[in-house]
């Protein structure tokens, strides 16, 4: 795949990455819609602002994707391609590293004047819907994208571990912005899911911005006393 991409012109690469990002967004939103429909939950229609912002976020994410590919071509990002058990190790390392890094960035934004300028845009709706995963101020989208590329540059992650992480990133994002909790309390409190970022976990952040800054887990919120059940 990477060899194929390397043979393409810059314009074709941008088009491929744009289609990729739009397709991922469409699949994620469709999955969120299906979950809400199966749960027979009322679905608030997306506003024109949400739709336009979602498109803008995809354009910025396309630029970030291209920057990552360019970084790999020029040796700034180095990936392993072996298929072995290290894939799991690299995935867990990337998963926890990004969870901590995004927790720190997310918490910092809420403590500064930047919140009023940038992040409050994402908190316009106290009860989000799946599309709100992509409703971010452009500067915030670029900040998270830069954090992502910086993390990849720190360590030679396995390429397949990166793909697994990116897939789960969308899954957690959609779940966190369902606006309702599809899982029963008994299952959420089970040992398997207790420390993961469920829909309720992130929904509580939207209703009370002083708590639950984590993305994939509640680990850092529990450690730094910002957790709210």
TrEMBL record:
Residues 91-226 form the Fatty acid hydroxylase domain. One of its GO terms (molecular function) is iron ion binding. One of its GO terms (biological process) is lipid biosynthetic process. It holds the Pfam family FA_hydroxylase. InterPro entries: Fatty_acid_hydroxylase, Sterol_Desaturase_Related. The chain crosses the membrane at residues 12-39, 51-73, 85-109. The keyword Transmembrane helix applies. GO terms for cellular component: membrane. It is found in: Membrane. Keywords: Membrane, Transmembrane, Transmembrane helix. This is Fatty acid hydroxylase family protein. It comes from Mucilaginibacter psychrotolerans. The lineage of its organism: Bacteria, Pseudomonadati, Bacteroidota, Sphingobacteriia, Sphingobacteriales.
């Amino acid at each position: 795949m990477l060899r194929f991409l390397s043979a393409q012109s810059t314009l074709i690469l941008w088009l491929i990455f744009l289609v990729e990002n739009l397709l991922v967004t469409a699949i994620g939103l469709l999955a969120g819609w299906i979950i809400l429909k199966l749960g027979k939950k009322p679905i608030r229609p997306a506003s024109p602002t949400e739709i336009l912002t979602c498109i803008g976020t995809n354009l910025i994410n396309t630029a970030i994707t291209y920057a990552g590919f360019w970084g790999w071509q020029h040796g700034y990002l180095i990936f392993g391609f072996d298929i072995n058990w290290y894939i799991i190790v690299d995935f867990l390392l990337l998963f926890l590293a990004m969870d901590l890094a995004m927790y720190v960035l997310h918490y910092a934004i809420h403590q500064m004047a930047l919140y009023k300028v940038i992040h409050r845009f994402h908190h316009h709706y106290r009860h989000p819907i799946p599309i709100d995963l992509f409703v971010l101020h452009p500067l915030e989208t670029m900040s998270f994208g830069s954090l992502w590329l910086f993390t990849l540059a720190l360590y030679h992650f396995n390429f397949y571990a990166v793909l697994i992480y990116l897939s789960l990133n969308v899954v957690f994002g959609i779940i966190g912005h369902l606006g309702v909790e599809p899982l029963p309390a008994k299952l959420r409190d089970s040992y398997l899911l207790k420390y993961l970022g469920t829909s309720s976990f992130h929904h509580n952040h939207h209703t009370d911005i002083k708590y639950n800054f984590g993305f994939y887990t509640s680990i850092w919120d529990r450690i730094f006393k910002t957790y709210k059940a």
